[in-house]
Amino acid sequence: MIQNLVVLGASGDLSARYLLPAVARLHAAGLLDDRQTILGIDRDERDDEEFRAAARARLARKAPDLSARDVRGVTDRLRHRSADVTDAAQLAAALGDLTGPAAVYLALPNTIFQGAVRALAGSGLPAGSRLIVEKPFGADLADARRLNETIHGCFAEDDVFRVDHFLAKQTVLNVLGLRFANRVFEPVWNALHIASVDIVWDETVALKGRAGYYDGAGALKDMTQNHLLQLLALVAMEPPTSTGHRDLRDRKIDALRAVRPPAADQMGALTRRARYTAGRVDGRSVPAYVDEPGVDPGRDTETFAEVTVYVDNWRWAGVPFRLRTGKALGQARREIVVRFRPVPHQPFPDTAPANRLRMRLDPDAISLDINLNGSGDPFCLERVHLDARFPAQQLPPYAHVLLGVLHGDPTLSIRGDEAEEGWRIVEPVLKAWSDGTVPMLTYPAGSGGP
C-alpha cells in the first residue's frame, strides 16, 4: 500500500464532501497503514493545526457518526503546504518532505488539470507515484486526448486512476455477478430476448451551490458522458476472461466503441434537453435554474438530458439504450431497467406483460417482474415481483475507489481510451444542442420532467 496521499486542492468542495470522509471511513475500518500520511496543498496560507481544525469541522458535518477517536486518528495524519499547484518550483518545495512514492489526487477544476500535471512532471515527484484524476476528464474529445498525452508523458497508464465512484456502487458491481455468475441470465442477455434498456439517474436535488462547475457543464457532461456510459458498458460488454483490470476494461472499451450516437437527422427524435423552472421539491421552494445564484442564463445549460443510443454489434443490434438524468425532479429514480420481449405465443386468455429486471442503485436492490398463475382462476395470470435488497456497504463507494488507488488496483478506474470514447459518443449531441437543432424544454421543479 502506498503510504503518502497528496491532495491538490485540499480545501475545495470535492475534498470536503467525498475524499476526506472516504479516508476517515478507511481509517475507522482499520484499512489504512499506520504510516499513512495525507498532505494537502493549495493556495491557502495555513499551518498544519489550522488545516486539521478545518478537517475536523468538515468531518463533523459530512460524517457525524464517526467517533472522536476516529476523527483524531485521521486528522493527526494531515499536513498542509501552500503552493500554486501549476507552478513546478512551488510544487517541488511543497513535496520536498516526501520520503517515498505518493498517490496524488487532483481535487481541482478540470480546467487546470493539464497545468497541474505538467507541474508535477517538473516537481521531482518520487518514482512509482500515482495520479488520481476526477471527472470530467477533459472538456471535449480533443481536450481529453491532449490531457491523456500530457499524463502519459509523466505517468504509466497503470499508475493513472481516472476515478468514477459509480463503479464501486454495490448494485453496479452486482451487474457483473448477475450476468456472469448465473447461467440463467447470460443466455437471454441479447437482442433476441431484450427489447430495451433504460439507465436512469433522476435526482430531487437542485443546484446546491454548484453553479461554478455545473453551469459550464450541464447534465450531459456531468452525468451521461461518464457515469451513465460506464453503466452502459457493464450492461452491454461481453464476458471477460477474468475480473482483472485489463480483462474487464478491455471488454468495457469494446462495448463503448460499438456505441452509435444519434445521427444528425435523428437528434430531435432521440435526444431531449430541458431545465427546471420554479417549483417545489419535497416541500421546499426551488427557484428556476436561471435564477439560481451564479448561473448565466445565456449559457443555455440543461439540467435534464435524455439520449437514446444503439450498440452496433451482434449481441445488441436494434436494442435502444436510453440514458436519462435530471435535477430537481419530483422523485429520485436511480436504476437500470432491462425490458425483455414478450413470449412468442400466449396460451392464456389475458395478455401477460413482458418481464422486467430492475437494478436499483440507491438504495441498492434488484427486482425481477414475472407472471404466474393467479390464486383464484388458475388460468388468470398475476404479476409477481421477486425482490432482493442489499444491506448498506461497510464502505462508501469513494472509499472503495481510494482503497484501490492505495493498493495500485485500477479495476474500478477508467482507462484513458474509455474516457475518450465517452466524449466521442456525446460530442455529436452537444453540437446539435449548441446549434439549436434540439429545442430547450422546461419542466417545473418537483415534476416528473419534460
UniProtKB/TrEMBL annotation:
Matches recorded under SUPFAM superfamilies:
Glyceraldehyde-3-phosphate dehydrogenase-like, C-terminal domain, NAD(P)-binding Rossmann-fold domains
Task: Name the positions where substrate binds.
Answer: H165, K169, E203, D222, K327
Is Zinc there in the keyword field? no
The residues covered by the Glucose-6-phosphate dehydrogenase C-terminal domain are 178-450
Gene3D superfamilies linked to this entry: Dihydrodipicolinate Reductase, domain 2, NAD(P)-binding Rossmann-like Domain
Query: According to the UniProt entry, where is the signal peptide?
Result: none
- Ranges for domain Glucose-6-phosphate dehydrogenase NAD-binding: 6-174
Q: What is its EC number?
A: 1.1.1.49
Please, which domain of life does this record's source organism belong to? Bacteria
Q: What processes in GO biological process is this protein linked to?
A: glucose metabolic process; pentose-phosphate shunt, oxidative branch
Q: Does the keyword Signal apply?
A: no
* Active-site residues (renumbered): H227 (proton acceptor)
Gene Ontology MF terms in the entry: glucose-6-phosphate dehydrogenase activity; NADP binding
Its catalytic activity? D-glucose 6-phosphate + NADP(+) = 6-phospho-D-glucono-1,5-lactone + NADPH + H(+)
Could you name the Gene Ontology cellular component terms for this entry? Answer: cytosol
- Name the Pfam families for this protein: G6PD_C, G6PD_N
UniProt: NADP(+) binding residues? R43, D84, V85, K135
Quote the pathway field. Carbohydrate degradation; pentose phosphate pathway; D-ribulose 5-phosphate from D-glucose 6-phosphate (oxidative stage): step 1/3
Q: Which InterPro entries match?
A: G6P_DH (IPR001282), G6P_DH_C (IPR022675), G6P_DH_NAD-bd (IPR022674), NAD(P)-bd_dom_sf (IPR036291)
UniProt keyword annotations, A-Z: Carbohydrate metabolism, Glucose metabolism, NADP, Oxidoreductase
Which family, according to the similarity comment?
Answer: Belongs to the glucose-6-phosphate dehydrogenase family.
Write down the NCBIfam families for this protein, in alphabetical order: PRK12853.1-3 (NF009492), zwf (TIGR00871)
The record's function comment reads: Catalyzes the oxidation of glucose 6-phosphate to 6-phosphogluconolactone.
Q: What is this protein called?
A: Glucose-6-phosphate 1-dehydrogenase
What does the record give as the organism's lineage? Bacteria, Bacillati, Actinomycetota, Actinomycetes, Micromonosporales
